[in-house]
Amino acid sequence: MASCCNEDLLLQINKARFEFLVVMLKSAGNVPRIELLEMGPSIDFKVDRTKIASDSLFKAACKKPKSLTAKRRKNMSEDVFGSQLARVHIGKQNIDAIQTRKVKALRKFSSATKIDPKGDVSSGWKKDGGNHYNGEAME
């Protein structure tokens, strides 16, 4: 009888996937009685081949071609999310020659060059080639 139970146990272990139908039955207490019925397709696997190959054949089977192994790239790494991180090396920079942002507020203007907002000549602004203030006092 012990061998029969072992065979049933082996048959259950060798199954690849279990799908069950949940059947709720009446019970005398507050907790319902639940039974699981196996359903759907099931496959029984059995190990047939247990012999180990010879050393030379086993070594040849486990050999990986060099083209499959990825070449390590310098200064590159990958974080846990799969993003690539790299370190870039650049030469020394001349900070004096770098073009920075041009700000109008810091420009040096002469006090005589101001633009007329209205383009009106009678308001103390004179036109001479463009809308420039001549330096006359406005009334």
TrEMBL record:
Transmembrane segments: none annotated. Keywords: Nucleus. Residues 114-139 are annotated as: Disordered. The lineage of its organism: Eukaryota, Metazoa, Ecdysozoa, Nematoda, Chromadorea. GO terms for cellular component: nucleolus. It comes from Dictyocaulus viviparus. GO terms for molecular function: rRNA binding. It is found in: Nucleus, Nucleolus. The keyword Hydrolase does not apply. InterPro entries: Rpf2. The keyword Nucleus applies. One of its GO terms (biological process) is maturation of LSU-rRNA from tricistronic rRNA transcript (SSU-rRNA, 5.8S rRNA, LSU-rRNA). Its main location: nucleus. It comes from the Eukaryota. Residues 115-130 have a biased composition (Basic and acidic residues). This is Ribosome production factor 2 homolog.
